[in-house]
Amino acid sequence: MRYMKTSNREKTYKIALVAMFAALSAIGAFIRVPMPMVPFTLQLFFTTMAGLLLGGELGALSVGVYVLLGLLGIPVFTGGGGFSYVLQPSFGYLLGMIPGAFVTGKLTQTKDGKPGWIRIILACYAGLMMVYLVGVPYLYMVCRFHLDKIIGFRVLLLDYFLTFMPADAIKMVLATIVGYRLIPVLRKPRKKNTEKNPVV
User: Fold this and answer.
1) Which residues pair with 167 in a beta bridge?
2) H or E segment to which residue 71 belongs
3) pTM summary value
4) Phi and psi for 33 in degrees, rounded to 5?
5) What pLDDT, on the 0 to 100 scale, is given for residue 35?
């Protein structure tokens, strides 16, 4: 039936996009600049793009698949993989990228599938804040209770938030530029089929 073929094709397409962005997130992990405790990578750019181009649910799913693969032992994180990675100070940022992609995708959802520049960049920064809201407290907890290293609020704010903001802000601008061009292509509103009798 035509409806069934269209549905299967759409599902396959969505699965392919989720897999592609999970792979891009993994690739982004290895495009990095070494820094103390939390390496600077392009993961955030790709996970933000996942939210922009796939939407909230699928974007979050693609990042979740990436994180799950790493926890299962596939070395897709900057420091390898495996369940023990949950004890790494940087793992909270990975977790934060899941709701980050979701928020970015949801805030750019419009009826015509063509959000404006301002809406996109605000959505990107909202997603970025989600990453930090999860990542920074997680880093503090791991350092305090697992590594027995107490980090003061000033150090936490300067070294693990403000230090990364300029580079992350640039990533959000780049994501906005790319997203503005590609969102109308990948997130077109579905046209309702008005046929009453599907062709077999």
Assistant:
1) none
2) helix 56-71
3) 0.86
4) -120, 115
5) 61
Residue with the bigger pLDDT between 158 and 174: it is 174
- Cβ contact 122:172 at 8 Å: no
CA–CA gap between residue 14 and residue 70 (Å, rounded): 21
Mean pLDDT of 32-59: 84
Cα dist from 128 to 27, 47, 52, 59, 69, whole Å: 19, 10, 13, 14, 22
CB 109: neighbour CB atoms within 10 A? 14
Phi, psi of 164 (to 5 degrees): -90, -15
Contact 95, 61 (CB under 8 A): no
Mean pLDDT of 52-73: 96
Alpha carbons 5 and 130: distance in angstroms, whole number: 38
pLDDT digits (tens, 9 = 90+) for 82-107: 999 999 998 999 999 999 999 999 99
> How far, rounded to the nearest angstrom, does the alpha carbon of residue 197 sit from its chain's CA centroid?
41
> Could you give the CA distance from residue 40 to residue 34 in angstroms, rounded to a whole number?
6
